[in-house]
Amino acid sequence: MKGEDKSKLVSVFDGSLWEAELVKGLLKDRGIESAIQNGLLVNNTLPETAIAVTVLVNEADREAAEAIVRERGDKETPAQ
Fold this sequence. Notes:
A three-stranded antiparallel sheet has the order 1-3-2. It is globular and about 30 Å long. The protein is α+β, with helices and mostly antiparallel strands. It has one domain (about 10-75): Alpha-Beta Plaits (2-Layer Sandwich). It has helices spanning about 15-30, 40-45, 60-75; strands at about 10-15, 35, 55-60.
């Protein structure tokens, strides 16, 4: 029986391009490689609000990446 394939990309964040870039930077700071899906489309074709972009990581890094995204969300303060 083969082990689970941990080489596919999975989504850990959906949002605006600037938020996705921020998440990507946070992941990189923690040693997790990531990629942004649909970022080029937003930059070159559509207004930023027209489509959400996705941050993808290797499935093996999913849990750590999701924890970083949650931690980021916990630090945000609601608008008053």
